[in-house]
Amino acid sequence: MKNTSIVYFALALLLICQFSCEKEKRLNLLADVPDCVENEIRNEAFTWEAVYEQRIDGEVFYLFDPGPRCFDCGSVLYDASCNIICVPSGTITGQGDGRCPDFSNAIIEETLVWELAP
Length: 118
Known about the structure:
Blueprint: H1 2-20, H2 35-42, E1 50-56, E2 59-65, E3 76-79, E4 84-86, E5 108-115
Antiparallel strand pairs: 1-2, 1-5, 2-3, 3-4
């Protein structure tokens, strides 16, 4: 009798948690991305409007774009390991942080991998 009560109590706790625990935010990723990129998209500290995979001369980068609603927020360019490379645009000057490599002669392929749902 005592063991049955413990089992019912444990089941009740599991059910309560199932219905009250916050579900993980579902992302509608349009392509496979590294875990660190997915985690950055999930990060609630800043809401990105879109994320693009950029292949620049064969190397993979991810551009996080805050969109037009935050005109002085900078977009952020990450490498495939989620190291920040630079801020290519935005900020108060609109010119980014000035630390981006010169990609002017590079072959750039860009693919949308995620965008904020309207």
